[in-house]
Design a protein that fits this description.
Layout lengths: L1 H7 L9 H41 L5 H5 L1 H6 L13 H17 L2 H9 L5 H11 L9 H8 L6 H9 L7 H6 L2 E4 L2 E4 L7 H32 L2 H12 L6 H12 L4 H8 L15 H24 L5 H8 L4 H29 L3 H6 L7 H10 L4 H25 L9
Antiparallel strand pairs: 1-2
Helix pairs in contact: 2-20, 6-7, 11-12, 11-15, 11-17, 13-15, 15-17, 16-17, 19-20
């Protein structure tokens, strides 16, 4: 039976089993394909995946306290903030040993800057104490010497911050990103006059939805017109739609800043036609109105192009058939044409919304204080306050929010119904 089975095995011309040869050829094809896409894969990993992973890490990383004050962190483990008193002499002795090394390595200022994000004044406390540490008596007592250097060393709040942020990983950045803080009694919201980020997240979401809807209301008729005009005319008008892509974003935004100001072209025209008086010129800049107008203009092509590509595939015979069966123009459009254009609406809405929710330049230039997005605050922490941990936490929350909204959109509309043509 084995001889009969062996006789049925298919082989190649050189006598090797056909199945093994096919498997080997398939592996070579896969390896060749991997080699071809390797540069693109490496580019995506380095420019997309790695920055996201780094952002996620920075949002929880907090090793500077344990690295700068290792003995103090260990000594603080037995101290209870609920006691209402500063730590004992042993903790101050550990702090002296750590600060003496940190001052020599000049790392105490970095630690002060990090903790200053959590409690104002700690940065100056570490700088001031750093200048006094070399004049302290090595024999002690250390507690009195530190209190003489600065009375804040006797405050429970100072040591509570040190103890709270002594672990190498912290949720403090994420708590700050939702306007919360960790106290002795647990997690609680910050005072109302210090809450800003939840409000900014809500404003960003609201304005992004408004911009998406305004792009849809303006872009749908334009795409419909382009899809039904003769090819020569539609191509000419399509150039006007694509023209903004050939102009710098900064130039377009600056142009809207000129147009929308109270002494700008739009207000001058409205006064000229007596629609408004010179004393009641409209305030359309440095507010939400300016942000919505400017971003709608900038993102409008991203709504028109998906709509146009889908509408071009809709056969006009469907509408003609509906009319021949007695449907009115409105009924034929609403019941026959519009449902077929929904995939283009979905694609344009997703594209515009995702672009809008992360925009930075336009809200910064025309939004003022009431029209900025959460992305502007992220940029502030990266470039000005240098609080990269909080910026990473805000960026992570923005990424999660987009993913959640995308999942909700998939449940309601269905991502399979989104088409670009």
């Amino acid at each position: 039976m084995s001889d009969a089975t062996a006789g049925q095995v298919l082989t190649t011309q050189d006598g090797k089993p056909l199945k093994a040869s096919l498997a080997r050829a398939l592996r070579r094809e896969k390896l060749r394909a991997l080699v071809l896409i390797a540069p693109l894969l490496l580019f995506v990993v380095l420019t997309f995946v790695a920055p996201i992973v780094d952002m996620l890490f920075r949002s929880v990383e907090n090793g500077i306290v344990a690295d700068t004050l290792p003995k103090t962190v260990v000594a603080l483990q037995t101290w209870d903030p609920r006691s209402g008193e500063a730590p004992d002499e042993q903790v101050f002795a550990a702090l002296y040993d750590d600060l003496a090394i940190a001052v020599e390595a000049k790392t105490h200022t970095r630690l002060g800057s990090r903790l200053n994000y959590e409690q104002t004044g700690i940065s100056s406390l570490f700088r001031k104490t750093g200048r006094r540490i070399n004049r302290m008596d090595e024999a002690g007592p250390f507690k009195d010497q530190f209190l003489n250097a600065d009375k804040k060393w006797g405050e429970v709040e100072t040591w509570q911050v040190l103890k709270q942020y002594s672990p190498r990983y912290t949720d403090g950045y994420f708590l700050s990103a939702v306007d919360a803080q960790r106290t002795i009694d647990g997690i609680s919201l910050k005072p109302e006059n210090e809450q800003i980020y939840l409000f900014l997240f809500g404003r960003t979401l609201f304005l992004s939805i408004v911009i998406t809807i305004s792009c849809l209301l303006l872009g749908y008729p334009i795409a419909f017109l382009l899809a039904h005009l003769p090819l020569r005319t539609s191509n000419l008008l399509m150039i006007l739609v694509l023209l903004p892509f050939w102009t710098s974003l900064l130039v377009r935004t600056s142009a809207w800043k000129v147009l929308l100001q109270q002494q700008g072209v739009i207000n001058d025209f409205l006064v000229w036609i007596n629609l408004i008086s010179d004393a009641n010129r409209l305030v359309m800049i440095n507010n939400q109105t300016g942000t919505i107008i400017a971003m709608t203009h900038i993102l409008l092509p991203f709504m028109i192009l998906p709509l146009y590509s889908v509408m071009k595939t809709i056969s006009p015979s469907y509408v003609r058939a509906a009319k021949s069966l007695g449907a009115t123009d409105w009924t034929a459009f609403w019941r026959v044409y519009f449902p077929q254009s929904v995939p283009g609406i979905g694609a344009g809405a997703v594209l515009v919304f995702i672009l809008a929710i992360g925009y930075y330049i336009t809200p910064e230039l025309v939004g003022g204080t009431s029209g900025i997005f959460i992305s502007n605050r992220i940029a502030f922490h990266i470039s000005s306050s240098l609080n990269w941990g909080l910026a990473a936490a805000l960026g992570t929350m923005l990424l999660v929010a987009v993913l959640v909204l995308f999942m909700v959109y998939d449940r309601i509309v269905g991502i399979d119904n989104v088409k670009l043509g």
